């Protein structure tokens, strides 16, 4: 049943099915296209997986950094609160000490006055019992003299110099508590949107234009990042060049000039910044940088031509001391260049063709 049987020229009968050679070629081409599509899709998926892993790693690292910064900020607040608390405690203690000293001084003065008054009162009371007039008169004079010396003590103010009121050192942090309760994360600008239609690639320059999804008057500047690549589509994580950064762009358009298009494509992304933080990156955009890249051969050039990569310069002294060009063909070439370029004229051109 599975035996091959020849059926006419160029045809084979296998399992009762006739397969023509051109049909096999068509199937091979179709299969090749499927393989190419699958390989491309696999590469795209792998690149996306690498991007996800890279993003996951970035999330973990950035979260750790943000947590560290948050701890530092709160530690700073705690430190300030501790300093303020210590200062207020010192103020209360100093006020307590001042008032205590004032009151202790008054108490001491009053105790001395009271002690002297009690002694004089006791002496005067005893003097009333003296029967002899001479001794009584003597005692009376002593009492009078001591009373005069104690007059200042009797003039002591019987009003406390300070009160026990300490309400002037009380605090109310209700407003501060409300402020602390309103603490929140910094406002972050939204991601800009690069407009591929407004972007331009020409004359070794790339102009990138973007816009904000909504008006934001707190944006201070933009950061543009770019890198060269040979892959179309989304930027790759592995085997790619580092992003180059252009900071402090005030407008929503920027032109990179003086570029050398030595790769097929360039990736671009942009982010907005306010006075405090930078926002999310825009979706990356890949622009094709078509170019014809070449270099000039110095070994086969005319003796009077100074050739360096893509630069040609006429050197009138370059042929001196060199071996003369022989042959009619070389002589015709020399005559052509000498007619085109004079000894006093330097012909310099640096070109980069685009198509």
From TrEMBL:
Do you know which InterPro entries this protein is assigned to?
Bbox_C, COS_domain, E3_ligase_FN3/SPRY, FN3_dom, FN3_sf, Ig-like_fold
Keyword Coiled coil on entry: yes
Q: Which UniProt keywords apply?
A: Coiled coil
Q: Which domain of life is it from?
A: Eukaryota
Q: Which Pfam families match?
A: fn3
Task: Return the SUPFAM superfamilies for the record.
Answer: Fibronectin type III
CDD domains documented for this protein: FN3 (cd00063)
Q: Where is the COS domain?
A: 128-186
Residues in Fibronectin type-III domain copies: 188-292
Q: Which residues form a coiled coil?
A: 93-127
For whether the record's keyword set contains Coiled coil, the answer is yes
What protein does this entry describe? Fibronectin type III and SPRY domain containing 1 like
Query: Organism source for this protein?
Result: Microcebus murinus
């Amino acid at each position: 049943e599975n035996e091959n049987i020849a059926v006419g020229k160029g045809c084979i009968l296998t399992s009762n099915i006739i397969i023509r050679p051109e049909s096999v070629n068509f199937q091979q081409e179709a299969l090749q296209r499927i393989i190419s599509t699958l390989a491309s899709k696999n590469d795209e998926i792998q690149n996306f997986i690498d991007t996800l892993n890279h993003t996951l790693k970035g999330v973990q690292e950035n979260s750790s950094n943000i947590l560290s910064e948050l701890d530092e900020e709160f530690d700073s607040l705690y430190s300030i609160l501790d300093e303020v608390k210590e200062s207020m405690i010192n103020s209360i203690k100093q006020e307590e000490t001042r008032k205590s000293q004032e009151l202790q001084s008054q108490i001491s003065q009053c105790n001395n006055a009271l002690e002297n008054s009690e002694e004089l009162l006791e002496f005067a009371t005893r003097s009333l019992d003296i029967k002899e007039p001479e001794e009584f008169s003597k005692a009376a004079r002593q009492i009078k003299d001591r009373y005069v010396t104690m007059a200042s003590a009797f003039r002591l103010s019987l009003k406390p110099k300070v009160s026990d009121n300490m309400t002037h050192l009380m605090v109310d942090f209700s407003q501060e508590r409300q402020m602390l309760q309103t603490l929140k994360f910094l406002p972050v600008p939204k991601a800009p949107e690069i407009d591929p239609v407004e972007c331009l690639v020409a004359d070794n320059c790339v102009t990138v234009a973007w816009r904000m999804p909504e008006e934001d008057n707190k944006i201070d500047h933009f950061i543009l990042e770019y890198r060269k690549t040979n892959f179309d589509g989304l930027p790759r994580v592995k085997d790619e060049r580092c992003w180059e950064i252009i900071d402090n762009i005030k407008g929503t358009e920027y032109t990179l000039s003086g570029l050398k298009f030595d790769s097929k494509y360039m990736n671009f992304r942009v982010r907005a910044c306010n006075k405090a933080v930078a926002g999310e990156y825009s979706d990356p955009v890949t622009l094709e940088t078509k170019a014809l890249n070449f270099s000039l051969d110095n070994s086969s050039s005319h003796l009077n031509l100074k050739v360096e990569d893509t630069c040609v310069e006429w050197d009138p002294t370059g042929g001196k001391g060199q071996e003369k060009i022989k042959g009619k063909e070389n002589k015709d070439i020399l005559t052509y260049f000498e007619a085109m370029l004079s000894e006093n004229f330097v012909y310099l051109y640096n070109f980069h063709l685009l198509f």
